[in-house]
Amino acid sequence: MIRWLVWLAGGVLLGGIVHIVTVLALPAAATRDSYARLAAETPVNEVALLPQPTPERTLLPFMDPAFATAICRFDLSDGPLKLQVPLTQAYTSITFYTRRGTVFYAINDQAAGRRVIELDFMTPAQRAALPEDEEVTAADRLIVESPSETGLIAVRALAPEPGALPVVRGALRNARCGTPPA
Question: Same domain, yes or no, for 152 and 92?
Fold first, then answer.
């Protein structure tokens, strides 16, 4: 009887270990992750407005039809980027993801305190290469450092009612993600 319990406990333990390793390894092994799905639909270092999700077709899982979504696939290998997103009346958020889907920064309209969210986006090495300017303080310039050279920036804006969706989508069309002017 005890021999069966030892075998049963060993089987459960081994099954648990295999389960945990599989769950942790799947994101790294996935070939059709969000970045790969959006590569065919969106240009690099530009904001692209995604089509509204329908029951038949959606680019990303769990997209809310009450939100308009724009994506900027970024590549910082050529230099820093400047992101400008006009705020909408209801709610606007910006989320930064690494190439593998890890969130490393997020900001929303409440934290911005302005009508437009403007920030400089760069790698730690690019930030270290910036000249020290005593006249420009941290309050004047929001700088976000990316842990990876490639990834996604997701801009989401709420349409509080279906009739407001065209206005919200129009605001997101004015979002910019590109190299800063010299």
Answer: yes
